[in-house]
Amino acid sequence: MKESYITNWDEWKQQFHYYKEIRIVFSDLDAFGHLNNTGAFKFMELARMDYLIDHQLLQPSALLTSETFVVVADLQCDFLQQMFYDDVLKLYVQPQHVGNSSVDLHYMAVNQKGDVTFVGRGALVQISRKTGKAVKWDEAQYQVLTKENI
Question: Which domains are seen in the chain, by residue range?
Fold first, then answer.
């Protein structure tokens, strides 16, 4: 399978540094005993939120009151291997393209054996709580996002 957002697999994999460790629990499984396909999207959300918080792009205490916030504009996942109960994944998150008010994040899940189990990408857009319209990143946000895009 060739993911359209990955031009050079080896170079792409080397860009990732930030990750969240996630253990697959029983409630993540489907009737066949492997990770339900919705689980990957939940895991991407967990890693994305931790990334934003850890990089001070999101303040949990202001999540419902801040003037701006980010929304997921699109999200896709490509499954490469099955995942099972008690597997431990490192879910990597990496900004790829930073626009005026958006960022394209890429994801890579690696299991405890070192195998890539799924990859994905998604666009986030910063919007105004009042107007619902896109809001340009401020300079500090832009610097954080582009610094990570090494």
Answer: 9-148 (3.10.129.10)
